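Shapes recur. One chain:

:::
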Amino acid sequence: MTESTPVDWELARTLAYRAGLSATGGAEQIPLGEADGRTLAEPLRTLTDLPAFPTSSIDGWAVRGAAPWRPVGRVLAGGAPEPLTEDGTCVEIATGAMVPDHTTALIRVEDSVTGADGRVSGEPRTGPVPDGRLPGEEARLGEELFPAGTPVDPAVIGVAATCGYESLSVYPVPRAALLVFGDELLTSGVPGAGRVRDSLGPQVPSWLRRYGATIGTVTGPVKDTLTAHVDAIRSALDTADLICTTGGTMNGPVDHLHPALAELGATYLVNTVAVRPGFPMLLARVPGPDGRPRFLAGLPGNPQSAVIALVTLVAPLLAGLRGRALPPLPTVTAGSDVAGRGDFTHLALAALDPTGRTATPVGHVGSAMLRGLANAHGFVVNRPGTRTTAGDPVPFLPLPLTPGERP
C-alpha cells in the first residue's frame, strides 16, 4: 500500500474533513465559563422570551394616560411592579426595570418636569430607537439562536447566560500526540557535523493547539527501527485521538512509517497528495486498543512541507472531529506572479497587505526553510494546470495566526 496515485489537494482536504466528522465524539456538558473555543453539539434554543418581560431602556417615568401624572411609586431593576390602575398616574423607573402593566408611555427623566404640586409632565420621544423593549423582541421561547456546530466565543456565552443556561452541550476537544522520527535530529544546541536541529518537535504542538487540539505526549527522536516506530505509535494510541509523525513518509532505508502502519492494521484514507511543497504526506485510520479507531497523520520531515501537510490534512480532520464546518477559502488579489506546478496544486507562502485583500508571495520558501513561513499569513492556492498573474483573483488558505482563530 506504499505506492499510490497522488490525491488531488482539494479532494484530500475533503476526505480528511469527512473522516473527522464521522468520528466526532459524543456531547459533554461544561460550565459556561469553560466553553470558550468549544463547539456546540446541539442547537442553542431560548429558555424564555428575550427579553422575558417588558423592560425600560431609560431612567425616567412609566406613565398611564395623559399628563400631568401623579407619582405613585418607584420601580428598580429586579423588582416586579404593581400595575398602573388609574389614568394620570406614573411611577419612577430605572433602566432595566420591568415596565408596569397598563403603561402607555415611557418618559425620559431629562424630558420631564416636576411641578410644585409634585405632578410630572413631559413628552415621550419618537424615533428609531425605542425607550423600552417588548417581551420576545430579541427572540421567542424555544427559538433556535445557534445551530449545532457553532463555534463558542464570548458573545455566544453571553447569549447563553442571558437565556438562563448554566452549561453548554459541546463536542470534546480532540487529543493529539506527536512522534518525531529521525536519528539525525538534535533536540538542543547548534546543528553541525551532519546533524540538524529538530524544528518540528517544538512548533507542531503549537499548530495543533491553534487548530483546536489538546497536546498530550511529544516523543522523539524515535529510533530509526521498525520496532521503535511500532512501539511509539502503540503507546500514543492509548491516549490520543490523533497522532502526528514527522519524517519517514518516503520509502527509504530508514523510513519505517508505512511498514509500521501495516503491522498495526491501519487503513489509508489519503496516501500522498498532489501538492507542492508537501509531498509525500498521508492520513490513516489506526485501530485503538479499545476498538475505537484513531487517526495518524504522517508529516514529511522537511519543515515547510510538514506545515503544508498540517494545513492540508490535519486542519480539516480536526475541524471534523470538533464538529465544525470546513470554511471555504477566501479570494484575494495576487500581488505578483505565482508559478504553476503542472498537475500538482501549488501552495505558495504569501503575506497579506494591511487591507487583507492582496497576497504577495514571500521569499525563502524551500521545503526545508522556515523563514518564509514566519513572514507569511497563509498560502496562495494555484490549482493544477494553472499559473497566477499579478492582479488575478486567487484562493487563499490562511494560517491560524492566533490560537483558535480557525477551525
